[in-house]
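Render this sequence as a predicted structure.
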Amino acid sequence: MYIVRALEKGDFDKLLHFTDRSSYGLLSLPKDHEKLIEKLNQSLSDFRKEVMEPKSEIYFFVLENTKTKEIGGCCAIYSKTAVKIPYYFFLVDQDLLHPFSLVDGPAELCALYLAPEFRSQGLGTFLSISRLMFIANFPSRFEKQIMARIRGVITKEGNSPLWNALGQHFFHLSFKEAEIALEANPDFVGEHLPIHPIYTCFLDDEARSVIGKPHPNSEGSLKILEKQGFKLTDWIDTFDGGPVLETSVQEIELVKKSTLATVQEIKQVEDGIEAMVGNRDTAFRVCQDTIRIIDKTHVQISPETADALQVTVGGTIRYAKL
C-alpha cells in the first residue's frame, strides 16, 4: 500500500536527493540544500504548532510504500504566500504582458515531485490531491483562496524560451543563473522586473508560443487540478511563462465531497467502495483502499488501512469516493 503522510525528520535526505534529480523550474524545491533544509525544518515546526490563522506556514508531505518504506515523491502547501516578499507575475492582456506584484497572497500548492520509477499506478494523481484532504481537515490553517503555479516550458538543456527572449535582457543572467539568484535573494525579481507593459509582438515566435503553456511533463498536473475545481487565471510566471491556477478552498471538489466518519469495524472489506481515506491528525496520513459505508457516520476499514492511518475503532477518519 502507498500512503502520503506528513514530513518526518528521517525524510530529509530523500528530499535532498529529489532536488538533485529534479529539473530546473521547481523553485519551491530549491536545489540549495541549506535552503531546502531550512524549509523542511520549518515544516516540522508548522505541523506541530497551533495555528489560529495562516502566516506563511509550509506543510511538506511524502509518498511512502508501506511495505518497503521507500519514499517515492513529495508535495507541499503554503498556507499563505507573499507575506514578507511579494510574488511577481505577468498579467496577460491580449498582446501585452503587464508586470505586477502580489502581496498577502493566497495559499499555494507547490513542491510536487514524483520519482520516475514511481510514475505509474496513478500515484501522481494520488500524491497531488492527497494534500487536499489535509486542507479539508484544517481549513482555518489556510487562506480562503488557493493557487498553483504550473511549471512552464523548459528545454532539455534547461533553458526557458520566454526567459531567453525577455527576462535575460533585463536581468542579464541565463535561466539557470536567475534561478540560483532567486534562491539566494527572494526579492531578486522585484529588483529587476520592468515596470511598464511589454508587447508580445516584439518577442520571437518560440517565446510567444509558450506564454501560459505548461511543460509537457506538467500537463497532467494541470488537468488534475482543473478536475478539482481550479481555474486558469490571466497570470503567468515571470521566469518560464507557466500558467497559474486559482480557486476558493471551499470550491475544491475533494473538500466539498469528502466526509467525516467514525471507524466502527476493522476487518477485511468484502464489498465496498474505492475511496481516499485519511486520519484527522496534524500527523497526517492518507491512503487509497476499499471501505464499507455502514451508515452516514460509520465505516468499516481494513486492518491494512487502519495500520496505515494509525487509527483504531472509534477513531475519526475523512474519506472521499474515488
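Summary. Residues 3 and 241 are 33 Å apart (CA to CA). The mean pLDDT is 95.
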